Amino acid sequence: MTTPVNLHRLLFALIVLMTTGCDKPSPISSGRRTIDSAQVMHGKALFEQNCARCHGATAQGDPLWRQRNPDGTFPPPPLDGTGHAWHHSHDWLHEVIISGTEPQGRMPAWGGKLNDQEVDDIIAWFQSLWPDEVYAAWWEMEHRKHTANQ
User: Fold this and answer.
1) How far apart are the C-alpha atoms of 55 and 43, rounded to whole Å?
2) Of 47, 70, 109, 143, whose CA is between 20 and 30 Å from 31?
3) Spatial contact of 103 and 92, defined as CB atoms under 8 Å apart
4) Could you give the CA distance from residue 70 to residue 19 in angstroms, rounded to a whole number?
């Protein structure tokens, strides 16, 4: 039986395939997804020290992340590719980690504790968890944004 998460991933993969041309290489096959193992391992350690308490050991987030808490905020979302983090640019993800989401949300600002490189390492780690089709869609969005700004 197909679970809602698997169905969501299948539908997403179909959308990605339908919206990309056959003559256009995917970001994955053209080598755009590079993983610096040292950066990812450092990011994992930093995530475990600073983020796992709320987002979960495997960045799975709170199971009820889409439902508001009694105070109107949302629980911590998954960062493992099953939530909405991939909809956001690297710059946005970086800024949210540095500045936090308070008072609208519960995420504290980490700018006083983590430097820019450490934040980038954390992002590299949780992006390494994303399925290839999710990363490919994020990369295309990121690439379009940078191309439009040039």
Assistant:
1) 14
2) 47
3) no
4) 39
pLDDT digits (tens, 9 = 90+) for 21-58: 433 333 333 436 778 999 999 999 999 999 999 999 99
Domain positions in the chain are 33-148
- Determine the CATH number of domain 33-148: 1.10.760.10
Give the whole-angstrom CA distance, residue 108 versus residue 91: 17
Low-confidence ranges of the chain (pLDDT < 70): 1-32
Per-residue H/E/C for the chain:
CCCHHHHHHHHHHHHHHHHCCCCCCCCCCCCCCCCCHHHHHHHHHHHHHHCHHHHCCCCCCCCCCCCCCCCCCCCCCCCCCCCCHHHCCHHHHHHHHHHCCCCCCCCCCCCCCCCHHHHHHHHHHHHHCCCHHHHHHHHHHHHHHHHHCC
Give the pair of three-digit tokens for residue 50.
């600073």
